[in-house]
C-alpha cells in the first residue's frame, strides 16, 4: 500500500525533525566507542552512516518537494 502525498510529507517531517537527530546522536556514540585509528577512517564511517540512513527511507522523500499530484488546479 503506497502512502499518499500528504502522508509522505508528514512522515518526512517526522523523520527529519525527530528521527534524524536521534540517528546523529547514535552515530556519534557508535564512532566514539572505537579508538580513533585515523581521521580518514572516521570520516569514512561518517560518510557511510550519512548515506545509509536514507536508503530505507527513499520512498518517503521521493517527490515531497514537488506540487501535490492529487490536487486540483
Report on the architecture of this protein.
The mean pLDDT is 86. The radius of gyration is 17 Å and the shape is elongated. It has one domain (5-58). It has helices spanning 5-33, 39-52, 58-61. It contains three helices and no strands. With 73 residues, it is mainly alpha-helical.
Characteristic key phrases:
73 residues, mainly alpha, single chain, 64% helix
Write the layout of secondary structure elements.
Elements: H1 5-33, H2 39-52, H3 58-61
Task: Give the class from helix and strand content and strand pairing.
Answer: mainly alpha
Q: Note the gap between the termini.
A: 26 Å
Give me the Rg, rounded.
17 Å
Q: Pick out the low-confidence regions.
A: none
Report the total helices: 3
Order of helices and strands: HHH
Mean of residue pLDDT?
86
Helical percentage: 55-70%
* Main sheet summary: none
| Principal-axes shape call | elongated
The total tally of domains equals 1
Beta-strand content bin: under 5%
Please report the total strand number as a whole number.
0
InterPro entries: DUF2842
Transmembrane segments: 12-33, 39-57
Protein name: DUF2842 domain-containing protein
Keywords: Membrane, Transmembrane, Transmembrane helix
